[in-house]
TrEMBL record:
<protein>
    <submittedName>
        <fullName>NUDIX hydrolase</fullName>
    </submittedName>
</protein>
<dbReference type="InterPro" id="IPR039470">
    <property type="entry name" value="Nuc_deoxyri_tr2"/>
</dbReference>
<feature type="region of interest" description="Disordered">
    <location>
        <begin position="379"/>
        <end position="401"/>
    </location>
</feature>
<dbReference type="Pfam" id="PF15891">
    <property type="entry name" value="Nuc_deoxyri_tr2"/>
</dbReference>
<dbReference type="InterPro" id="IPR015797">
    <property type="entry name" value="NUDIX_hydrolase-like_dom_sf"/>
</dbReference>
<dbReference type="GO" id="GO:0016787">
    <property type="term" value="F:hydrolase activity"/>
</dbReference>
<keyword id="KW-0378">Hydrolase</keyword>
Length: 401
């Protein structure tokens, strides 16, 4: 097993590739006679790393101990912090020799990033406020170097091999299905990720990552140029279901919508009117059945749903996709839907109301957004042969690991 641990000291360039990277954040001794805590932390990392590839440790202390260029030091730390999969905060604060004032600022910048651990000896003063926010944001905490390292490496696991611009995508995002789906498409087009910087993340229930945004530089193979000024935003894919009952004409076809308050809605009534759907782990078809039950109260056999495939909902804004399903339901099922509600998962603040409109009313009244109208157009178009996958272009990249 390759248990290669590489230490990169302040001012030194990072390696070209790795499986994982950590940054040792915390107070640096102000006096030469004060021993640093970082050498012990590095030894604990060497002892505990069990990944299959290289682990990089960013140490903000200089190899030669000479600090001459303050701006260069700050910029190196800032870049290395963003490269890290885990930022290990260890704060053995001593007011006279290691006051950790800069550490307080760094903690404020990174405590809610989803990729930090916090350690400090129980007797170290001045850490109560930092610990408060560690507990509030679900940050793993420890009281010894060994346990702090163990907490960080537990989050990292075996890591994942990344090189070039891929190194700048932390494991927190790299491991998501939404990122891998986007990146696979870029590689298949022959494009190359040159650089990346996490803009923000949002975590939902149980601190699970729900949304992410990454500023990327992508070499566009077809145009031989680098596009630098865009942010990729994504979330888990959704499963949506179009329920309908055909009328004499397409515009007479009855369609089931759900009305729900969504904060982003810029509509006259402040609600969105959309197809039942949502996201969750597992098979998209099973998710579609579950969302129908949650949002409309209708329990339907999976075999009744017709799959239309998956597409992006708003390709200029978000990388996530919607898996579309549809089913023609009976008059009795329509009647039952009219008399039920509200629905939704109360614990998530979800409250949905079933609405039934004709397709003509939906088109003419501007009741839904363009994406939902497109979903309905596909679902109501009737069964037809599905196109095969597009041909792979010459020079397409490999699927990311």
């Amino acid at each position: 097993m390759n248990r290669d641990v590489v230490v990169v000291y302040a001012g030194e360039p990072p390696p070209a590739d790795w499986h994982a990277a950590v940054f040792l954040a915390g107070p640096t001794p102000r006096r030469p006679e004060t021993a640093s805590w970082r050498p012990e932390m590095i030894e604990r990392i060497r002892d505990q790393w069990r990944g299959d590839g290289r682990l990089v440790v960013f140490d903000p202390e200089r190899r030669d101990g000479i600090y001459e260029d303050y701006t260069a030091q700050v910029e190196w730390e800032e870049r290395s912090l963003h490269l890290a999969d885990q930022v290990i905060f260890y704060v053995p604060r001593e007011p006279a020799t290691m006051p950790a004032l800069t550490t307080n600022v760094e903690w404020g910048m990174w405590h809610d990033s989803g990729r930090v651990v916090f350690g400090a000896p129980p007797e170290a003063p001045g850490n109560r406020y930092l610990l408060h926010y560690a507990h509030k944001y679900g940050v793993p905490t420890a009281t010894t170097p060994a346990d702090t390292v163990a907490a960080a490496l537990s989050e990292i696991g075996a890591g994942a091999h990344r090189s070039g611009g891929e190194r700048e995508v932390p494991l927190l995002i790299w491991r998501t299905e939404s990122f891998q789906c986007w990146y696979e498409a870029q590689c298949a087009a022959g494009n190359t990720l040159r650089a990346a910087r996490v803009v923000w993340t949002f975590r939902g229930r149980a601190q699970a990552l729900a949304y992410w945004a990454v500023h990327v530089h992508v070499h566009v193979a077809a145009e031989d140029r680098v596009k630098r000024n865009e942010v990729v935003i994504s979330r888990p894919d959704t499963s949506v279901v179009a329920l309908y009952r055909r009328g004499a004409t397409p515009d007479d076809t009855m369609v089931v919508l759900v009305r729900e308050f969504r904060s982003a809605a810029a509509t006259p009534d402040g609600f969105v009117h959309e197809l039942p759907g949502g996201s969750g782990p597992g098979d998209p078809l099973a998710q579609a059945v579950s969302e129908l039950d949650e949002e409309t109260g209708l329990v339907i056999e999976p075999s009744r749903l017709r799959a239309h495939g998956a597409r992006q909902m708003a390709a200029t804004v978000s990388a996530h996709r919607a898996h579309l399903f549809s089913a023609e339901i009976t008059a009795g099922e329509f009647d039952r839907l009219r008399g039920t509600g509200p629905h939704g998962v109360v614990a998530d603040g979800e409250r949905t109301h079933v609405e039934i409109h004709t397709y003509g009313e939906i088109r003419a009244g501007g009741l839904v957004d363009w994406a939902t109208l497109g979903l309905l157009a596909e679902a109501l178009d009737g069964p037809r042969p599905r196109p095969g996958p597009p041909p792979v272009r010459s020079g397409a990249g490999e699927r990311p690991s």
